[in-house]
């Protein structure tokens, strides 16, 4: 998930592409796990990191 957070902060990659890159084929599952770890969904994390 650290790599996913890094990619969300530093690229404009789509969330599904980031999910696949870090080993998730299901974007919903990725978003749930990410949200549990970081307290916000991936797109919100990206918005807050700008």
From TrEMBL:
Alphabetical keyword list: DNA-binding, Transcription, Transcription regulation
HTH araC/xylS-type domain boundaries: 1-48
UniProt key word RNA-binding: no
Protein name, entry field: Helix-turn-helix domain-containing protein
Organism from which the protein derives: Roseburia yibonii
């Amino acid at each position: 998930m650290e790599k996913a957070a890094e990619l969300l902060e530093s690229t404009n990659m789509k969330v599904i592409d980031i999910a696949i890159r870090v080993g998730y084929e299901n974007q919903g599952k990725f978003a749930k796990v990410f949200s549990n770890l970081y307290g916000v969904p991936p797109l919100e994390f990206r918005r807050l990191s700008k």
